[in-house]
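MODEL INPUT / OUTPUT PAIR
PAIR INDEX: 1
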Amino acid sequence: MYLGLKIRIYPNKMQKEIIDEHIEGARYVYNYFLNYAKEKSIYDLEIWKKELQLLIEKRNKKELINCDYYLLMNQLYILKNTFDSYFKNLCLEPHFKKKTAIISAFKISNKNQNIIISNNHIYIELLGNLKAKISKDIKNNKIYSIVVKRTTNNIYEASILYDAFIPFFKKTYRRVGIDIGVRKFITTSDKEFILPPDNLKAIEDRIRRLQKLLSNKEKESNNWFKLKDKIAKLHIYRNNYIKDILNKATTKLVKEYDVIFMENISIHELVKQQEKKAVRRKIMESSLNSIREMLIYKCKMYGKKLILIDRFFPSSKICSECGFRHDPKDEETFICPVCGLTIDRDYNAAKNIYNYGMSKKQEWIIVRRLASEFACNTGTN
């Protein structure tokens, strides 16, 4: 199974220059062929390759002088895959990469075994030995590729794609419904809550104060750059802090339950429905989509099942006791006017999601059986 490992790297001055050159070269090639494809309506990879060779042969672009050819070629494959997904309505239209992007990166494939992992070092043929902080022992694993990244505050990272065997978690024969939201990250039908940590608000308040100070500084002055770096570091700390909480929570769910029911929510639609700007910002910053993505790959990794129910199912408007549909005005408490049930709104929604998922149990068993029969007939795994 393919797994990714994100690590911190510490390049020296010369290695930083090489990384920066290749990031700029990759950005230039991506933007050049995005513009080329849009202007001439040519989406053929072979034509792009010929054009790239002509572009490199001219050697009149400083961004391409010292860049590795295969690394630049890789940008064409990335752009082609993005266009293919766009034409299938799987993603938004490709956009130009900016110099001021939060993360700038380039990808190196390990076709000729030019990437070697050792104790706290990574050998890359292009860069030589890189100091690194590696949390897992993957020396004996097959390495497929590595993506070298640079953040806005000049922190360098690497994402390693490698092959690994992951044993499945033991079966628990338990099922659960979960509701995800802003006030509570995760609420389960077994009345467990994953709340945002208390000090998260303090971090966000500090970011707001520093942004206010930044607006009063002279733009692009030394103090302006120092403050901007400080804000960027706080944003990274906040995002990593939330990811750590969600990773631990989702792993716990996958370990304790065999089947997890959750709504197939659309963050884009959820944001559009909100009138208040503060609420919209809160939804976008709460990493709700990350929870679903984490559960999808962890259920696949550990042999569990995630059932995504209809996103239009009104889980927060139905009484989990009597089934009466009612739109509560209170954001935190659901009070049923028929049976008088008073319950936490998110917990009520989680119970409804569980009940809905169990009522459709026969359907998803049939779907699973049909999928296994199709796999047998076609000889696929």
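PAIR INDEX: 2
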Amino acid sequence: MRYVKYVFDNVHGYIGLTEPELLVVDSPAFQRLRRVKQLGPADLVYPGATHSRFSHSLGSCFLAERLMRALFPGEDEDAIQLIRLAALVHDVGHPPLSHTLEGAMEASHEEVGRVLVLKGELADALSSAGYSPREVAEVAWGESPWRVVISSPLDADRLDYLLRDSLHTGVVYGRPDVERLLMIVKAVEVGGGVAVAVPERSVHVVEHFLLARSFMYRAVYTHKTVVSFELMYSKAYSLLADAGEAPRGRDVLKAASSDSWRRIDDYWLSSLLRSSERAKGLVDAIEFRRPLKMVAEIDRTSPLFEEAARLATDGGAALALEAGAPTEWVVAGRPAMRVHIPGTLLVETDRGPVEIERLEGGLVAALERCGVSEREMVRFYARRDLVDKVKRALERLLRS
């Protein structure tokens, strides 16, 4: 690759950028990612977690090339450049606070990303460099022979965010051995598609990676206070969107197709929420770090799970009504942990390729049997002075 600029990254060191990549990075649509926090409000629990989608996107681009060369050693430089561009833009559509607001805005970051890449300044940047915006979008979010580099159990995105998130949160047991993983992975054809495989003698390296991801989910991504603040932001935004004061659904995609998306970042969100009286109490509680307290957590092993999940679909409104509490001070959500997707990662053994969760004596198989590798739950939160009242209301609703 011919790099025309180098950026120093605190995770990977110097990251080289090619001319096409520099055109993308210098666009306002990409620079916006500097103002979108990677982990949303997680810095209210882990003060160092203020890193951005911008740095993560650069890291994903860097690792995409290394992973591409490991999985597809025969591919030419044009293919590698294409995969680097796809990794670079794969998160460009993230809303303010990243995943926190996707539900409230009713538009996924993949949908928004496609709009941004297929039209406007990003499309112009790619086209001027001789690359098809549609082809880049297909590699980033669709189907391609190299899809596993961008979306798989061991893709460039996961490898970078685990390294980056563990560094900035200080959760050291969330750090996988990426260097070793890049030495052992290979691509294999399975059922007309491509899967990632590792040799049996090195399966412990993948098990470490999956455990690291599990630890990050437990310690950071589904941390009860992090989720509290995420749900508070989501409820505050929904209150404004319900009143027509904030974009939602098609209006979000419409904004993405215009220059206005450049300003829809974390600062825009803060200004929007502060400017309305509808969510003033919630916004003050967030900014002065007064999280809602968890009333209950009900996971899939409970016979009450399905009813609790149904009750949480309205974000806690029905529960607030039953408790006689103000709607904005009762929230509900369904954080989930899925460390490994069955059938997507293979181990090469003397008996042929085996799915890692079926490997005899393997750690992942043991975790699967114990139900530790996947955990889905429903959580209910309320303002501290309302907890007892809301808890009694929840018990009444789940008994009925």
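PAIR 2 NOTE: The two ends are 64 Å apart (CA to CA).
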